Predict the structure.
Amino acid sequence: MTRAAISLIKSDLPEKWQQLLSDLITDPKELLQILELDADKHPFSKTGVLQFPLKVPRTFAALMEKGNWNDPLLRQVWPFAAEAEQVTGFIADPLGEAQCNPVSGLLHKYQGRVLLTTVPHCAVHCRYCFRRHFDYAANSPSRAEWQEVLDYIIADDSIEEVILSGGDPLAASDRQLRWLIQQLGQISHLTTLRIHSRFPIVIPQRITPDLTLLLRESSLRVVMVLHCNHARELSRELAIRLSTLVTNGVTLMNQTVLLREINDNSTILVALSKALGAHNIQPYYLHLPDKVAGTSHYAVSKESALLLMEEMQRQLPGYLVPKLVQEESGANAKVRLT
């Protein structure tokens, strides 16, 4: 770890990330004021905000360009009026997750792995979220219900990997994560713990020495899959903090959602892959967005995505080219499109 990294991380109060999480921007008018934007140009969807409230960390808003409605980070979190449109084919549960939910807090869609909805909330509300209509009320286990989750995993020795998702698993306290990870580590047939999180992107301060130690001490192989959609999201502070995870044995990967007028451009995607590689993050998946009600304005066609992939393959070495995929309800794996 560099001297800069040690100095930066040691300067943190233990509760700093929690303080940032408790002080999110939740009023669209405040976000407009901070970014010096004209409220009349893109009025927000009151229906959209009612169904899926605005949540933007101030650390993430600080990366946005003031006065620019086309800022790619802003467009991911702004509740555009299009959210209120009802579009054929865009539904509340396009992935059929309600059918793969045998016990509270656990989704079992694919062979050999299960997903746990570790917490019901996130640090940021990405407007294209495929779980914006998910039934978190029925999937927020109590300590007793977590035992049912563990018993389910114990009873199926074909399960080798557990994925912590949510919500965002890093919105949980270190105490809660430590308990859950220790319990999983005691299951003999588990080999891998995968953590899917956007938290480090929007609040890098979440990567603390305590969290790093917690992950390093796990008996399971730890993989963290970040969710970064644009190179502008990779701040210098994030890079320093991620380096501590790498030096402590955590494998870093990234999955990107292909979003109209945000990153559906080969120049942007190539720059993102290069930036990820420079930070020891393996580009993993490039997802077509799921057809979730209220998100049709983010849709990118399969044909356009394939053309973008061809351009990326021409410009990048193979190890920096993510797999183009989409998820289909009932499929036994993500569907590869290339």
